[in-house]
Write a structure and sequence with these properties.
Blueprint: H1 6-22, H2 34-38, H3 42-53, H4 66-85, E1 92-95, H5 103-106, E2 114-119, H6 121-130, E3 139-144, H7 152-158, E4 167-171, H8 180-192, E5 199-205, H9 216-225, H10 236-241, E6 246-250, E7 277-283
Parallel strand pairs: 1-2, 1-4, 2-3, 4-5
Antiparallel strand pairs: 5-7, 6-7
């Protein structure tokens, strides 16, 4: 089967974490496709993250728990996407990157919704083979394209996306790996193909999370894979506003994104030097 590169491989980690969450008795969601999508790679990926999060010996955990954050992020954006889809005018959902996401299969969607799953051709090739026998719960159109390359907009349009209609875009587990210029370039391009009334969601960290001593173990995992975290911002609202989107940024552990699972303190936005992760959601005025 096609081999995935370092950044593409992170989508397998997400699937592994979702498979693990789905085995919990008090799970935040159930993803019956996650184990199929991650395959034999799951245990090794989880072992690396667990080792960084819960070090051996007498050293207590200081890294925020990926095993709590990933389910919170998944559930938060599950709920956000389903609220968007409940609007009869919202007919287009773009998952970018789609990775090994199975939302089109595992959640219920109204008949008017169409999914566009945008990701690198190698990722979609693997995913299509794994899901060949499964039926999605919504119309689903793979869009093989690289978000950093020229022309993904044309590929999306060729798949049936209509930039004159409202759309909902989710960038989950992506922006960490892009430079500042690449993030701005991506949001500028998305702004050019989204109509008024469109929505956008993403997760990202702040600057301190890229350098904080207590984050070193987790950051080393991704650096060793060949896909270091390079982008963070303390002002996600301003970042998206530059490209025409009005957003809110929620930290895991705050009331809209807690779900009884966040075990660490939540630093107020006024606290300087604290590392943060943001769940960003908003859109363009109608």
């Amino acid at each position: 089967m096609t081999q995935l590169d370092a950044i593409e491989r992170t989508c397998l980690l997400t699937a592994a974490l979702r498979a693990g969450e789905s085995r919990r008795e008090e799970r935040l969601f159930d993803d019956p496709y996650a184990q199929l999508l991650v395959g034999d790679a799951g245990p090794g990926l989880l072992a690396e993250i667990r080792s960084a999060t819960f070090p051996d010996g007498e050293v207590p955990r200081t890294v925020p728990s990926t095993f709590d954050f990933n389910p919170i992020r998944t559930r938060f954006f599950d709920d956000w996407l389903q609220r968007a889809a409940a609007d009869p005018s919202m007919t287009q959902i773009v998952l970018a990157p789609a990775g090994m996401d199975s939302r089109a299969f595992r959640l219920e969607w109204p008949d008017h919704v169409r999914f566009f799953e945008l990701d690198r051709p190698t990722v979609l090739e693997v995913k299509e083979k794994l899901l060949a026998a499964e039926r999605p719960g919504a119309e689903r159109r793979p869009v093989p394209a690289d978000l950093l390359a020229p022309g993904w907009e044309d590929t999306l349009l060729a798949a049936g996306y209509d930039p004159r209609l409202p759309s909902t875009w989710l960038f989950e587990g992506l922006l960490y790996y892009f430079s500042q210029g690449q993030v701005d370039g991506l949001l500028r391009r998305v702004g050019a193909v989204t109509a008024p009334g469109s929505r956008i969601g993403a997760d990202l960290v702040n600057d301190a999370a890229l350098t904080a001593p207590r984050m070193r173990g987790l950051l080393k995992v991704f650096a060793d894979w060949g896909c270091p975290w390079v982008f963070g911002t303390d002002e996600p609202e301003a970042l998206f506003a530059r490209h025409g989107f009005t957003v809110q940024a929620v930290q895991p552990g705050e009331p809209p994104a807690h779900y009884g699972r966040w075990r660490d303190p939540v630093p107020p936005r006024t606290a300087e030097g604290a590392e943060r992760v943001f769940l960003v959601h908003g859109g363009r005025a109608a």
